[in-house]
Amino acid sequence: MSSVLYAEDLRPGDVFELGSTTVDKDEILEFGRRFDPLPLHTDEDAAAASRFGGLIASGFHTVAVLQRLLVDAVFSRSGVIAGREIDSVRMRAPVRPGDMLHGTMEIVEIRHATTAPPSSTAGAR
User: ∠50-35-19 over CA atoms, to 5°?
Assistant: First the structure.
């Protein structure tokens, strides 16, 4: 494959290593306060008293970390990327301060658009 990825370069079964990153306590607290202000993500004492026994990252925070890994490893060198679908997301275990997240992306299926996106008529009256 060339250094720039185009749709015609991709094949089902292609796997991309995404690298890794460590999630720290301050990052969990900041994301939680801004976007998912449940006590599990924003208050260490309340989180310690929860069934998780301590602070955990929001699931949306975990997905945002994955997005960053995807951009750095794959999407930043793609000719055109349009997010069309996330088939499923499962949170298998809580993400805690100090956890290292890593991943891979596999091309499972390639579907080509059959029609152009609808044109916008905003403001036309």
Answer: 90
Instruction: Return the DSSP state at 54.
Output: S
Radius of gyration of the chain (CA): 19
Partner residues linked to 88 by β-bridges: none
pTM metric for this prediction: 0.79
> How far apart, in whole angstroms, are the C-alpha atoms of residue 97 and residue 55?
7
pLDDT in tens, 69-121: 999 998 888 886 666 667 778 889 999 999 999 999 988 887 776 655 555 44
Q: What are phi and psi of 25, to 5 degrees?
A: -60, -45
Distance CA 1, CA 11 (A): 11
CB 52, CB 44: distance < 8 Å: no
Q: How far apart are CA 88 and CA 44, in angstroms?
A: 30
* 3-state SS assignment for residue 103: strand
Percentage of the residues of the chain whose pLDDT score is greater than 70: 83
Distance between CA 64 and CA 45 in Å, rounded? 25
